[in-house]
Amino acid sequence: MSVTDKIHFRMMSLIHEDLYRVFRDPYQVLDAAGLKPGQDVLEVGCGPGFFTVPAAQIVGEEGSVYALDINPLALERVRQKIGKSGVANVTTILGDAAQTGLPDQSFDLVFVFGLGHAIGDVDGIMAELHRVLEPAGILSVEGRLRPPNQLFHPLGRQGRIVQYRKVA
Ligand SMILES: C[S@@+](CC[C@H](N)C(=O)[O-])C[C@H]1O[C@@H](n2cnc3c(N)ncnc32)[C@H](O)[C@@H]1O
Fold first, then answer.
1. Residue range 55-113, pLDDT digits in tens
2. Which residue has its alpha carbon closest to ligand 1 atom 3?
3. How far is CA 102 from CA 3, 26, 94, 98, 129, in A?
4. Is 122 in the pocket of ligand 1 (CB under 6 A)?
5. Most CB atoms closer than 10 Å: which of 19, 29, 40, 65?
6. What confidence score (pLDDT) does residue 162 get?
């Protein structure tokens, strides 16, 4: 990990943790995304984990959160937060969202927040998220990312969050 990578991660964390915290309530955003108790949820591009522990608290002990990021510094930070919070239903995954290695149809909901500049192949990421979602699964997206119509059908918008239903 180069010094530049570390500085870049620190700057991203300043924006996505310290600054956004001032005007974003993670519980409200996750509610808009459709998270419910008992769900199995994949968080794509979890970054420093602003949403990870709140998501784990919302889905509760009957549910689970898989927090995935391509950046090892992000997962290191998320693991620290998990340790401090005491939640026991989060699994961290270091990897590319286009190739998660997760089983087919294993999630009720996938959320992708703040992934304006995905590293790599966005079409590949969308195909992969379609694969890992259950047949009636929900993809919730914040920001500019627009999933292709042949894979995801728009359900509705709340603020900056758009929910999509997986197309069978
Ligand atoms: C701007 S941060 C957003 C963090 C968090 N979701 C939030 O909204 O606060 C975007 C994150 O997506 C990760 N990322 C970008 N491309 C990725 C990919 N192909 N696979 C997995 N993670 C990726 C980056 O490493 C970064 O941590």
1. 999 999 999 999 999 999 999 999 999 999 999 999 999 999 999 999 999 999 999 99
2. 114
3. 31, 25, 12, 11, 10
4. no
5. 65
6. 97
pTM for the full model? 0.95
Residue 53 has pLDDT above 80, yes or no: yes
Does the C-beta of 96 come closer than 6 Å to ligand 1? yes
- Is residue 29 domain-resident? yes
Residue 122 domain-assigned?
yes
Q: Write out the two tokens for 103.
A: 């089983």
What is the rounded distance in angstroms from the CA atom of residue 95 to the CA atom of residue 111?
Answer: 16
Centre of ligand 1 to C-alpha 123, Å, is 16
The answer, yes or no, to whether any atom of ligand 1 lies below 6 A from the CB of 97, is: yes
DSSP symbol at 39: -
Ligand 1 pocket mutation, candidates 25, 115, 122, criterion most atoms within 8 A of CB: 115
